[in-house]
Amino acid sequence: MSLILKVDGDRWRTHLRRVADERPGMVPVAKGNGYGLGNHRLARRAAWLGVDTMAVGTYEEVADVADRFAGDIVVLTPWRPFLDTGAADLHAHRVIHTVGRLEDLRALADRRDRPRVVLERLTSMLRHGMGGDELAAAAAFTGVRHEGVALHLPLPGPGSVLEAERLLAGTAPGTVVWLSHLTAAEVTGLAAAHPELRLRSRIGTELWLGDRGALEVHADVLDAHAVGRGDRFGYRRRRAPRAGTVLVVSGGTAHGIGLEAPNGRTGARARTTALARGGLDAAGLARSPFVVGDRQPFFAEPPHMQVSMLFLPAGPGVPAVGDRVGARVRHTTTSFDRVEID
Ligand SMILES: *Cc1c(COP(=O)(O)O)cnc(C)c1O
């Protein structure tokens, strides 16, 4: 029983190439669940794309990619004295630390091996980084190898471009600037205006998940039970709101399925109005992410750990045991049992 991510390999690789062509100097990001694909797989793809640098989110994730990707690895979480950098220290010559505080830079500069660092500039995100004066002081440290300045901007919009323009205007010629969350066109425009800088895009979602048509999620139908209106089923011995099928499909809370808040409108009045509309939410059911034909059925009850019970009102197109149904999931929060790339 499996929740499967199916990748149309040719189409996906064509998309990856196109993004790489649009973004010279691109730095692919692999972090978390590897955007549903797994960090190890993304590392191999980054090597295949021929990029010289990739980025991971945490020091622990360096180990996910280091054996499969031979280039440099930027760690996006800023270095802190209390973080365990053990995995990364094994690859110290190709790990680039992000540094967001002067005191951290001082600590790194005291090391013997002159660590490689990118200095993070504080942006309107207010997540990590140093202000302009601190950055100028940081740039003068000689105990580290300077690899540039990082700007982590809010999600794309005119404000982000204006902010990038303002910050780039004060940046020393020759600096490598590592950017996040600007569109390819915006970066191209900024690069043309600043030939004295080298701009590099750190990019995850648009790269790995940017062509949704190349990605499909499949769940196995494990069981199908015909029920009449009022028949009981499930852990909670709920009654079927009308005649139909209780469908048991692979994919549950352990995969990240259905963790959104369930529909709370179970009061008598809400139920009456929903009944008037003919909606199944009248029975307190929540819409599931599964797709059966052109229907997106309700959960018959809250998802179990590895399977979900769905309620499919009577009608055509009831799948059989062994069929596969689709699912619309958030890839960055879903653990697939298997990734199939053809
Ligand atoms: C995660 C991350 C990225 C990549 O984000 P996407 O939206 O997936 O492209 C870029 N920069 C930083 C600093 C990040 O943490």
Keywords:
single chain; 342 residues; binds pyridoxal-5'-phosphate; 8-stranded mixed beta sheet; 8-stranded parallel beta barrel
Terminus-to-terminus distance: 20 Å
Major beta-sheet overview: 8 strands, mixed
- Overall helicity: 10-25%
List all distinct small molecules, including ions and cofactors, that are bound in this structure.
pyridoxal-5'-phosphate
Integer average pLDDT: 92
Derived structural class: alpha/beta
Number of helices: 10
Report on the structure:
It is built from ten helices and 18 strands. The protein has 342 residues and is α/β, with parallel strands linked by helices. Strands 1, 10, 13, 14, 15, 16, 17 and 18 form an eight-stranded mixed sheet that branches. Strands 2-3-4-5-6-7-8-9 form an eight-stranded parallel β-barrel, surrounded by four helices. The longest helix has 14 residues, at 9-22. It is elongated. Bound molecules: pyridoxal-5'-phosphate. Pyridoxal-5'-phosphate (PLP) binds next to strand 9 and helix 9. Residues 29, 31, 76, 152, 180, 202-206 line the site of pyridoxal-5'-phosphate.
Walk me through the topology:
Layout: E1 3-7, H1 9-22, E2 27-30, H2 39-49, E3 53-56, H3 62-65, E4 72-78, H4 86-89, E5 95-99, H5 102-109, E6 116-121, H6 132-139, E7 145-152, H7 158-169, E8 176-180, H8 184-193, E9 198-203, H9 205-208, E10 215-227, E11 232-233, E12 238-239, E13 244-250, H10 268-277, E14 290-291, E15 298-299, E16 307-313, E17 324-327, E18 338-341
Parallel strand pairs: 1-18, 2-3, 2-9, 3-4, 4-5, 5-6, 6-7, 7-8, 8-9
Antiparallel strand pairs: 1-10, 10-13, 10-17, 11-12, 13-16, 14-17, 15-16
The structure holds pyridoxal-5'-phosphate.
